[in-house]
Design goal:
- With 176 residues, the protein is α+β, with helices and mostly antiparallel strands.
- The strands form 5 sheets. It has a 3-stranded antiparallel beta sheet, with helices on one face. Strands 1-2 form a two-stranded antiparallel ribbon. The chain has a two-stranded antiparallel ribbon with strand order 3-4.
- A hairpin with a 2-residue loop joins strand 6 and strand 7.
- The two termini are 17 Å apart.
- Bound molecules: zinc ion.
């Protein structure tokens, strides 16, 4: 059985040779690092990891720095939309996940796509390597380049992406 990657505090921990190891490498360097065969075991360790506190501290410092960089970016970047603007975009979500409670339940996750028409509630920025302009629209985070000019185009694109995804699922089930 293949173990799924774990999202730990925003950091992806991938299993190596069937086991997880501590991302802080807290074990004695002279010996093999401790490993866990299950996500539960891994998470239990992370609660008591001797290097965990320092790691959480650096994480908090990094988050503060990230927040101030974001504020500078927002103040200096020309945003195409303002708070209160109505925008359209294609929302993608996971309808059926590939993993449930750490177990693989299907080969491919099943995605849904739909056009959303909504209002900008806040300007923000998101980091994907560099900072990119983005908008908070209610509960959605929308990147500037994801915004589509009009509702009809958004609906057409959502339908196209849905059809392409279904074709991909069919193709990958046919070749299995
Ligand atoms: Zn540890």
């Amino acid at each position: 059985m293949t173990l799924p990657p774990i999202d730990f505090d925003g950091q992806i921990v991938k299993p190596m040779r069937g086991v997880y190891s501590c991302p802080h490498k807290c074990g004695d360097k002279r010996y093999h690092q401790p490993t866990w065969k299950t996500e539960k075991g891994f998470r239990k360790h992370m609660e008591v990891c001797p290097k965990g506190l320092t790691a959480a501290q650096t994480g908090a410092d990094r988050a503060d720095q990230e927040e101030s960089e974001r504020e500078i970016f927002i103040a200096s970047h020309p945003y195409a939309h303002a708070i209160g603007d109505v925008v359209n975009f294609v929302h993608q979500w996971v309808k059926l996940p590939a993993y449930k409670n750490g177990r693989r339940v299907r080969y491919d996750e099943v995605l849904g796509f739909r056009a959303i028409r909504t209002t900008v509630t806040k300007l923000t920025a998101t980091r994907q390597g560099n900072m990119f302009p983005a908008y908070i629209c209610g509960t959605f985070l929308v990147l500037e380049h994801e915004i589509i000019a009009d509702e009809e185009t958004a609906e057409r694109l959502a339908a196209e992406r849905q059809a392409a995804h279904e074709a991909h699922l069919k193709f990958s089930s046919d070749v299995r």
